[in-house]
Amino acid sequence: MDLDTAKQALEEFIPHVKNISDGSIRKMAGRDLARFKEFKKQGIAVKFGRFTQKENKQIERNVDEFLAITGIDSAEKLLFTWRYPEERETITRLKAEHQFCEKISEGIPRPWRLIYYRARKMFDPNNYKGRYTEEEKEKLKKYHSMHGNNWKKISELMSRSNLSVAMKYSEIKSPINYGPWTREENQKLRLAVKEVMRRKLELEDASSLCSPEQSNGDLWVDREKLCQRLPWTEIETKVGTRFWRQCKQRWSSILAKRMSKGQQLQKGTKSLQNKITLIKRLYETKVEDVSEVNWEDLSDAVGDVPKAILQGLFYRLKVSCVPFWQKKTFCEIIDFLFEYKLPQFEEKL
After folding, report:
1. Locate the HTH myb-type domain: which residues (predicted)?
2. How far apart are the first and last CA of the chain?
């Protein structure tokens, strides 16, 4: 399958496929496309975002079954084969013979690459070693000066996972502010996002812009573009005083306020209608965990409002309306809201 055909076929399942590298698209066409089509026949959509507990259990079962079939004696050897050079050739052969890619992703409607990374995070013994000591932080700075962003090499030297060393370096490489955001920091964040968005959009078809520029020179960008993944480590560098996770959270907050366009979501009749619609939609989804909720779809259903606003509305509903909500499951919270609070809201409306 040529690249253009692969993109077109995958776009049905992954709307943001145009933002994925050509190499990754070719791999997904081979590893994922047939799986995605099979899930479609079953009425199951491809998922992204946080893995649910059910999916984690499925990954554990898939790994255990593969170990039993091949005789490989540990998940670490299976997922971190390079750590065992003497057995590497044998393990690689067994993985090829018994179709490792297909087996580990069995029953999970997500791209294979994301499932593989999740499995590595779950089974990496170096991923759960507690807080970094001051000595480890100094070693991390030293190794980064020697090897740059080669996190695989650094993780081997420190016996920590790739993700762990990368995130920790992000936190310690410069003075980080943990207090309230200042006006200057907010301005730096907005300019950083604007800069990366401008560059990103220049590489895409001009039709992706609602209008090339507003009269004041600011970019006018579709809501979907602003919600897509942004290069947070780059934005972190431009802000300078916050690490990437703080930048991402702050941007979500700014985005929610800007996108609301003055809608007073929590006042009067509009507030009641939004609560009613949200409860009904959450009840109809029949999902078992909040991480499975597609907030983007819900935002369209409620009235094209940012998902951050809806998430905040749901949080306020459960805290203010559901007794002992901390001890209830997500399903129990939704059932209570639907059975007891929904009729009250409808009557009041």
Report:
1. 124-177
2. 55
Q: Are 125 and 80 a contacting pair, CB within 8 Å?
A: no
Q: What is the DSSP letter of 338?
A: I
> Domain limits of the chain?
3-123, 134-173, 183-207+221-260, 269-347
Cβ–Cβ under 8 Å, residues 133 and 36: no
Alpha-carbon torsion angle 28, 29, 34, 35, nearest 10: 10
Q: CA 309, CA 313: separation in Å to the nearest integer?
A: 6
**Distance, CA of 310 to chain centre:** 18
The single-letter DSSP state of residue 337 is I
40-58: pLDDT as tens digits:
888 888 887 778 888 999 9
Give, in order, the Cα–Cα distances in Å from 237 to each of 165, 173, 231, 242: 17, 10, 10, 8
Which of 51-65, 250-264, 303-317 has the weakest average pLDDT? Answer: 250-264
Residue with the two structure tokens 């940012």 = 306
Q: Which residues of 311-322 are buried (b: 16+ CB within 10 A; e: fewer)?
A: bebbeebbeebb
Rounded Cα distance, 17 and 11, in Å = 6
Contact at 8 Å (CB) between 103 and 65?
Answer: yes
Q: List C-alpha distances in Å: 330 to 123, 286, 289, 311, 336.
A: 27, 10, 6, 13, 10
> Residue 341 to residues 121, 317, 322, 326: CA-CA distances in angstroms?
40, 9, 9, 18
pTM for this model (two decimals):
0.50
* 3-state SS assignment for residue 210: strand
Note the residue count of the chain. Answer: 349
- Per-residue pLDDT of 72-82, as tens digits, reads 999 999 998 88
Which residues, 6+ apart, have CB-to-CB distance to 23 below 8 Å? none
